[in-house]
Amino acid sequence: MKEKSVLINVFLFIITLILIIFKVFFSLITRSIALQADAIDNVTDLVMIIASLVGVIFANKKPNERFPLGYYRLENIISLVISIFIFFTAFNIIQESSIDIFKFFTGTEKKIFVSSEVLIFLVISQITAIGIAIFLKIISKKEKSPILNSEAKEKFYDSFVSFTVLLGFIGAIFKLYLLDSIFALIIVVFMIKGGYDIFIYSTKTLLDAVIDFDKRNELYNLIESFPHVKNVLSLAVRGYGKYTFLEIEVLLKREMPLYQIKELKDKLSAKILDQYPNIFRVLIIAQHQEKTQEKVAVPLLNNDGVNSRISDHFGESPFFAFLLFEDKKLIKFEVYPNKFKNTEKRKGILIADWLSSEKIDALFLKNDLKKGPKLVFENSLIEVFLTRYEVINQLMKDISKED
To answer: Got the DSSP string for 84-113?
Structure first.
């Protein structure tokens, strides 16, 4: 996907740059202020393309001590400089168009020179803008890319701007030269909006401002419903160029080994990125709950309280015990019948799903699991231990004396 994104953006960069050069050239020959405005408006597209290229190229560069969040702000510095250039150019175009309109009412109208070459170029430019917009729309749907989708919308907007320029030249054929200055002012409005959006976004990013995220509540619910996450301590969404970074700090329900915390972070990040594709990278900081609780499940052969015997078989166990420990002290002991014992198909997976829904932290067995149930527990970050004990009371004493 990275190579494809680079190729697409390089292609867009070349096409856009060629169009800008020709528009500037023809604007000088024809004296069209609208065509000049259209060329400068295309510079905002160039900024977006450069931003995408910088983001993709530097995406795999690892952060370091000097650049803890990577190199993504490079594109914001470039964008900020270009936005100032756009404002300056927009001011000059407004000034020049206003003078031309004033001259029209004083009887000294500025003429626009029309040629077949410039008309052919404008038609080609119009077709190119529409063609690229359709191409990007198709690719964005195929790749499920919100970035390409936004670029497609920009190109549809470009085709509209190019169409107004074409109308201005058609008007010039009939001596309606004033249309060029009027359309130039209309295009300048879009230029200023585009430059303003780039300026504000780049400034916010460089100042490390937190950006709005319309699905914040859904994101909170997703994170807090994840196994072993008690609650979200903080959540910040930041923008770096066209890329969105999510920084979250979570409180875990219990103390966990480092390898399991890493696994939790990886799985939670993958789930967030899958449901919110517009988020580019997730940074998770995990803290342990001060007072730890641990819920344990054990398959039982019979229901005789703390003297119940541990079953040799996971799926065929008549009962399951649920033990809740707080600071290694047993505070709750419950036994439930295995409601899937007589199920013929997918028995092990159904039991694993049931135990996972009970929010257990660990499962103690006498024999190893089959692949299906084992995968369910791995995905839910539930640890599975093998025990040599025959009676659950012996296991309870062993858990209580663990450091």
So the answer is: HHHHHHHHHHHHHHHHHHHHHHTT-PPP--
